[in-house]
Design brief:
- This protein is of the alpha/beta class.
- It has four domains: about 5-100, 2-Layer Sandwich (GMP Synthetase, Chain A, domain 3); about 125-275, Rossmann fold (3-Layer(aba) Sandwich), CATH 3.40.50; about 280-345, Helicase, Ruva Protein, domain 3; about 355-445, Orthogonal Bundle (Chromosomal Replication Initiator Protein Dnaa, Chain: A), CATH 1.10.1750.10.
- About 60% of the residues lie in helices and about 10% in strands.
- The protein has helices spanning about 5-15, 20-30, 45-70, 80-85, 90-105, 125-140, 160-175, 185-195, 200-205, 225-240, 260-265, 280-295, 300-310, 315-330, 335-345, 355-365, 370, 380-395, 400-405, 410-425, 430-445, and strands at about 30-35, 40-45, 75-80, 150, 180, 210-215, 245-250, 270-275.
- The longest helix has 22 residues, at about 45-70.
- The protein is globular.
- The termini are far apart.
- It binds adenosine-5'-diphosphate (ADP) and magnesium ion.
- Adenosine-5'-diphosphate binds next to α7 and α14.
- Adenosine-5'-diphosphate binds near residues 119, 161 and 313.
């Protein structure tokens, strides 16, 4: 095989592990310099790329390359002289862009969430100002202005967008080490590390970052061992003046099942909420989203969407996409608004039973399979009963059907579960809040 073809093959096998097409097109441009004595040498354009390859994908790369070159033992990276000599400015800028992208991806960030495409209004002013304060402090090399920064809101109001915008901005402007991680992924990592007896390694791994962003921290509730490890990671970071940024669907005092010492740590930082945008703010958001897509819509359609969709920004965006499709077809505002009215009215509950099981499971730290099995630990039984209740309430499934969906349970078991949950809801305000949070999650999938 010709040597450069070999590299093309390696990159395309690696492709599965690299999600960005831009990034892999960049990898394709790397040249193999030599393959001697079981060592492959790659010529890379600059020191950043070299570091990125060494630190981030060296292991994967060796593994993939070994399938084509079984004798391979190591990969070395040299900075290509040829490229350096004639590096035109434009290409360098492009390299930098690829590189930012590579860092953003490897930090777990989605580059599409930026401050530039984040609309600021009264509804999110405080959260935005806090996010900016964090960015500015780090850009000036100052200490974290507050630790942690804790942002909360109902679903679809921009927490993830804002958190990731902070990370993306600090990578682009300061090349800081950022790690963004959704809490369910984080807790899974902790649980795996406990199982494999390498919690210390994990704690160490999380010391590497200057900025640690954990999204939807409420998922840590009810998981004691996980909270222990989290607490250590959290304290290490705060002691070393690293920045912690958290989001949640509730303020700390409303998160049930977290240790008091953790709650008080959360409350020791800055807490900012995001509300629902007003009509004018919704219009501003719609206009920005149109501009981003390079599209236009007559103002009566935009006003219709702004007036009718009052749930959250994610749904506002969903409505806009529908409007664009319908308008392209109908070419008339009136007809488009008529269709949209029908769609919004019958806003069919499209969430599937499986999705409900997944959401309930995730909320309580179980897999869908756990819910279906026969195990009877207390927490699992409760989660299972909640799933039954919500399948009934949200999808009006029959009792026997719910039984079948939950691993062939008897319909009387389902009936008992629904009644018991209803009873608890009447008695216990906190339980009601908890179930509302789960329902809200389910509704965000409608
Ligand atoms: P959350 O994490 O609170 O559930 P997301 O951050 O996922 O919400 O936001 C849902 C959608 O709404 C995303 O597509 C996001 O880009 C968009 N969005 C939220 N807030 C804003 C904003 N202020 N300006 C522009 N888009 C926003
Ligand atoms: Mg989110």
């Amino acid at each position: 095989m010709e040597i450069q073809t070999l590299w093309q093959n390696i990159v395309s096998s690696l492709g599965k592990k690299i999600s960005s097409p831009l990034l892999s097109s960049w990898l394709y441009s790397i040249k193999i310099e030599s393959f001697e004595n079981d060592s492959l040498t790659l010529a890379v354009p600059n020191i950043f790329v070299k570091e990125w390859l060494e630190k981030k994908i060296n292991k994967d790369l060796i593994q993939v390359a070994q399938t084509l070159l079984p004798s391979l033992k190591e990969i070395k990276y040299t900075i290509s002289k040829e490229k350096m000599q004639r590096a035109p400015q434009k290409e360098e800028a492009l390299d930098q862009q690829f590189l930012d992208l590579a860092w953003q991806r490897s930090a777990g960030l989605n580059p599409k969430y930026t401050f530039e495409n984040f609309v600021v209004g009264e509804f999110n002013q405080l959260a935005h100002a806090c996010a900016q304060a964090v960015v500015k402090s780090w850009q000036k090399g100052l200490l974290p202005p507050y630790n942690p920064l804790f942002i909360y809101s109902k679903v679809g109001l921009g927490k993830t967008h804002l958190l990731e915008a902070i990370g993306n901005e600090l990578i682009k402007t300061k090349k800081l080490k950022v790690r963004y991680i959704p809490c369910p992924t984080f807790t899974n990592k902790i649980i795996a590390s406990i199982r494999e007896g390498r919690t210390n390694e994990l704690i160490e791994e999380f010391q590497e970052f200057s900025i640690l962003i954990i999204d939807d921290i409420e998922f840590i509730a009810g998981k004691e061992r996980t909270q222990d490890i989290f607490f250590q990671i959290f304290n290490n970071a705060i002691e070393k003046d690293k920045q912690i940024i958290l989001s949640s669907d509730r303020p700390p005092k409303a998160i049930k099942g977290i240790e008091e010492r953790i709650r008080s740590r959360f409350e020791g930082g800055m807490i900012a909420d995001i509300n629902m945008p007003s009509y004018e703010e919704r219009i501003a958001i719609l206009e920005l989203k149109l501009k981003e897509r390079g599209k236009n819509l007559p103002s009566d359609i935009i006003e219709f969407l702004g007036r009718e969709i009052k749930t959250n920004i994610r749904e506002l965006e969903g409505g806009l996409i529908k409007a664009l499709i319908i308008f392209e077809h109908e070419k008339s505002s009136q007809k488009t608004i008529k269709r949209l009215t029908e769609i919004l009215k019958t806003s069919e509950k499209k969430v599937s039973p499986d999705k409900i099981l997944e959401i309930v499971g995730e909320f309580y730290g179980f897999s869908k399979e756990d819910l279906l099995c026969q195990r009877r630990e207390k927490n699992l039984v409760l989660a299972r009963q909640i799933a039954m209740y919500l399948l009934r309430k949200k999808l009006s499934l029959s009792l026997p059907e719910i039984g079948v969906r939950l691993g062939n349970k008897d319909h009387t078991t389902v009936k008992y579960a629904c009644e018991k949950i209803e009873e608890n809801l009447k008695k216990d305000v906190n339980f009601r809040k908890e179930i509302e949070a789960v329902e809200e999650r389910i509704e965000s999938f409608y």
